[in-house]
Specification:
The protein is mainly alpha-helical. It is built from 8 helices and 5 strands, in the order H-H-E-H-H-E-E-H-H-E-E-H-H. The strands form 2 sheets. It has a 3-stranded antiparallel sheet. It has a two-stranded antiparallel ribbon with strand order 4-5.
């Protein structure tokens, strides 16, 4: 029997497709296609479902296949494997995204702005609105980095730019 973890997650889709097939029997090729198995793996699955020899072909009863697939999906082992597999896929996807992000080199401006007023004209900052004009993803990242450095260098200035009710330190 092929490792269930490799093909069992395809069973719900296989059930949906089997419900639409009018034929009372299924051959090896259909089992292969439904579950994404090799011919040998499909035969192993079929051998567990009381195959019927019809001439030179080996087939299985569609109703038995549906019943067996429904039992697998209803079982705790399938739910555990499904949850584990989805969690693993999520982790792998996150790792791929992080790896791709780590490969990006963000260009840094020669001179970093010390204040928000020193930012280039690509920026427009008003209360509730930041507009950044850029040419491509790397340019955007460079400009946002410059913006973050200006904000870090003079956070009070940023607060005043965003909330005019905040008075400068000496004006109280």
């Amino acid at each position: 029997m092929p490792r269930k973890s490799a093909w069992s997650l395809r069973i719900p889709q296989a059930i949906e497709e089997l419900e639409r097939i009018p034929s009372p029997v299924l051959d090896r090729r259909l089992i292969e296609r439904l579950l994404g198995l090799s011919p040998r793996q499909a035969l192993r699955v079929m051998n567990r479902l009381s195959p019927i020899v019809m001439g030179k072909s080996t087939v299985v009863d569609r109703a038995k296949v549906l019943e067996a697939f429904r039992e697998v999906v209803a079982g705790q082992e399938w739910h555990w494997e499904n949850t584990r597999r989805r969690r693993l896929e999520g982790h792998l996807s996150q790792i791929r995204m992080n790896r791709k992000a780590q490969e990006v080199e963000i260009p840094v401006s020669q001179t970093l702005p010390n204040t928000i007023r020193d930012l280039p004209e690509n920026f427009s900052l008003t209360p509730g609105c930041l507009i950044v004009r850029f040419n491509g993803a790397l340019d955007l990242l460079r400009l946002l980095y410059d913006f973050s450095q200006a904000c870090a260098a003079n956070f009070t200035e940023l607060e005043r730019a965003l909330d005019p009710s905040i008075l400068p330190a000496g004006d109280v």
